[in-house]
Amino acid sequence: MFPATAAQSEVRIVVLFTSIASFLVVVGGTSYPISKLAVSRMAEVFATEYEKEGLLAIAFNPGDVLTDLSRKLPGKASMISQDKPELAGDTLVFLTKEKRQWLSGRMITSNWDMEEFLSKKEEIIARDSLKFRFDI
């Protein structure tokens, strides 16, 4: 049994931290994007596997925040961070203050306008967007 589904609470939300780097091919930095891709897919797997137990699993990108890791990036890459850490916290509170089951298994980014994002709910559901796909 997955521990999050054993909780007595009606609200069962798991947030897995990922990165936009999961979409990138980075020469010399292979392990980071691959691990973030795995985390994003894990949210999709949890969402499917534990849907009947009411689990909401979100792959969450906290944005372009300056971290110890990004400070070590070569050249100007370490200078591109523009989001404040508080943005990620505010976004998480907003996203999890109520259970939005339709978000389960999807990758959400903190620097999106949340009201605009939520207004696209029907389109996101219809296209099954914000998930990794092998599309031909």
From TrEMBL:
The chain crosses the membrane at residues 12-32. InterPro entries: NAD(P)-bd_dom_sf, Sc_DH/Rdtase_CS, SDR_fam. Keywords: Membrane, NADP, Transmembrane, Transmembrane helix. This is Uncharacterized protein. It comes from Clonostachys chloroleuca.
